[in-house]
Amino acid sequence: MTSRDLILARIRAAVGDAPDVEIPRGYRGPGAESDGLIEHFAERVRDYRAVVHVVDAAEVAAAIGDALARREAGRVVVPAGFPAEWLAESVIEDLTTVDAVVTTCAVAIAETGTIVLDAGDGMGRRALTLVPDYHLCVVRADQVVPGVPDALTRLDPVRPLTWISGPSATSDIELNRVEGVHGPRTLEVIISI
Amino acid sequence: MSQTFVGMPSFPKNAAIAVQDSQLRFNLRKATRTIRGKRASVVEELPDWAELRQAGKAIKDHTLRNLERYLVQMEAAVSAAGGTVHWAKDAEEANRIVAGLVKATGETEVVKVKSMATQEIGLNEALAVEGVTAYETDLAELIVQLGDDWPSHILVPAIHRNRAEIREIFLAKMADVPADLTDEPKALADAARLHLRERFLRAKVAISGANFMIAETGTLVVLESEGNGRMCLTLPETLISVVGIEKLLPAWRDLEVFLQLLPRSSTGERMNPYTSMWTGAVEGQDFHLVLLDNGRTDVLADEVGRQALRCIRCSACLNVCPVYERAGGHAYGSVYPGPIGAILTPQLRGMDTALDRSLPFASSLCGACYDVCPVAIDIPSVLVDLRAKARHPRTERIGMAAAGWVFNRSVRLARAQRFGGRMRKLIPKRLPGPMSGWTDTRDLPDIPQESFRAWWDRTEGGAR
Lengths: 193, 464
Ligand code: SF4
Hints:
The complex is a heterodimer. Chain A has four helices and eleven strands. By secondary structure, chain A is α/β, with parallel strands linked by helices. Chain A has a single domain, classed as 3-Layer(aba) Sandwich (Rossmann fold), CATH 3.40.50.10420. In chain A, the strands form three sheets. A five-stranded parallel sheet of chain A has the order 1-11-6-3-2, sandwiched between helices. In chain A, strands 7-4-5-8 form a four-stranded mixed sheet. A two-stranded antiparallel sheet of chain A has the order 9-10. Chain B is an alpha/beta fold. Chain B is about 50% helix and about 10% strand. Chain B has helices spanning about 10-20, 20-45, 50-65, 65-80, 90-105, 115-120, 125-130, 140-145, 165-175, 185-200, 230-235, 255-265, 295-300, 315-320, 320-325, 340-350, 355-360, 370, 380-390, 395-405, 410-425, 435-440, 450-460, and strands spanning about 85-90, 110, 135, 205-210, 210-215, 220-225, 240-245, 250, 275-280, 285-290. In chain B, the strands form two sheets. Chain B has a six-stranded parallel sheet, sandwiched between helices. A four-stranded mixed sheet of chain B has the order 8-5-6-9. In chain B, helix 3 crosses helix 12 and helix 16 packs parallel to helix 19 (about 380-390). The N and C termini of chain B lie far apart (about 65 Å). The model of chain B has no long low-confidence stretch (mean pLDDT about 90). Iron/sulfur cluster (SF4) binds near residues 312, 372, 373 and 374 of chain B.
């Protein structure tokens, strides 16, 4: 008998005659009403000690330029498919020499202050937003959803997904949150309205 | 389970030593208090916490009831997405599979993301025997590994260490540590970043666990904070994930419940900094999933105890437990300490050793663990059930058998009460010999001159 068959047989013997269970879903599902979505999202991202700017769609390119200048970022990686009117794409092979990465996102969650990347256009493979020490992410207003349930309906599980809530952090020393361990130590978000 | 703790004395003996350590008690008190406050405020914030908790409980129960179907579905989905699925009935088989996969790559080093399952099976030790070095990359795991220590908490294995102690460990054991390292948490985190950077970029094989697996899509989900998880999950060419069979969820949408329950219960955040999700082999990686039983199907067979398999390892029950806060995690002699450990360890390992038999008694049954548990595991009830199953000490068994004989017939009881009343002056305050265990921590109750029944018969309920 293979271990697979053995384990499955043990499961059958263990719960074969147990009653099944109904799943009550009385919690707030997708599509809940919410006012002030953008402000809510901005405030929640700031709670993680990330820098947030809310700018008009026409000013995104300038805001990106300003942020990179403030950071004095020389070598910047910009993934394929990033909107050309915001910033020209720039591929850098050796990520360890990069000062900054600029990306879009797939969806953003107001209640938890989370951005989700799905490795699609303007986001690139997962390592791009991991190795550089500074991550600048542009979120379009129509990408912001109220809660976690809404976000899941918009995402495709077949794509590799990275959910990001603030800069990398640890609570391992006396259970206090310290920003900046292995991922980018600084997260900056530009919300385009 | 892991060999690490074999031969450890029972919980009361370990705890008696631990509570003498005032530094340990101070560290634990400080840390658990901080996290309790944070958890409470982010849980309060959600108007539908109770409904999420009910859904979380029901989704897990439904999955366990249909585990066979969902495991087969998971296997098919992962295979279709280019991953390879392995089945391990016990720790030994899981370790053999992983060691074989690592050796097939020709590598002698692997990086690891914190995982309870691989600790449970003692994977690092098993790999070492095969000539493979496993490097823990989670900060707390690193502190434990460098300090030759044992983990004492599910989420923060080095919770028993304060910043000054961590600094000492880094200075002594980290080759590339800055000489002027302070005990500022920021400086300590920076030192870890520096120490592991090269290792991440060089690593060819990574080993992880998973918080959830989705049967419908074949997706694995890992929640973390530091980014070490992302480093291990994305950079290496080969990824091996060892996951307990109870980590399954039926559908993609079920994550809407658990991605709210878990971060708020564990680190007390609205969301943890990073969550990675992947389905099969992605971005050119070679992906292996090892499905682990190792006693879980035995737990599943126990009608009362099986609810322990709902556990999502958030550690909220540890953080509120008055026993854990004083005794610390090491006293439980298992990678699963605290209230969940007290019910999970004896079920996974059986109750053959004095330590494992003593664990169901490592509780005051106050119920705080049940209140905070995001999947509503009724830990006190499982503890009581396990207590009944544990073999009790000889004196206690004889005492209980004698009491049972007396209580069984009212004549015997009345006779015993009359006898007790007459002898009351002669009963010592402390019991002798093996019975002293009882009076070490309790007063013997005073025996009244007359029992209530005798008084009632004599006075007709006080009428005379
Ligand atoms: S038993 Fe409940 S509270 Fe304890 S770790 Fe598991 S899920 Fe969390």
